[in-house]
Amino acid sequence: MKEVTVQELKQMIDSGEDFQLIDVREPYEADISNLGGELIPVGSILDNADKISKDKTVVIHCRSGQRSKTAILNLEEKFAFRNLFNLRGGILAYADEIDHSIIKY
Known about the structure:
Blueprint: E1 3-4, H1 6-14, E2 20-23, H2 27-32, E3 38-39, E4 58-61, H3 66-79, E5 84-87, H4 90-97
Parallel strand pairs: 1-5, 2-3, 2-4, 4-5
């Protein structure tokens, strides 16, 4: 599985790179803290596969990186996505290494 580090994600954001960021956590989690990605909870990711770009890089994240891995594996298996990247360590790593103002839960 392809991954990006939180430093790589920050660089993608800062450089204005054209990519899609998807958050597969639950709405209450996104209310606590978020990175500005499109919220598609992992339980509904397969039903919303049409919302995920096949034409550009897609970074998928969750709290720690586990649910996003599951989402990516399911999307790759069922819909043959090849442009998906897991955010290693999830939003917790982003809070630890990039933005200390993000609330950890």
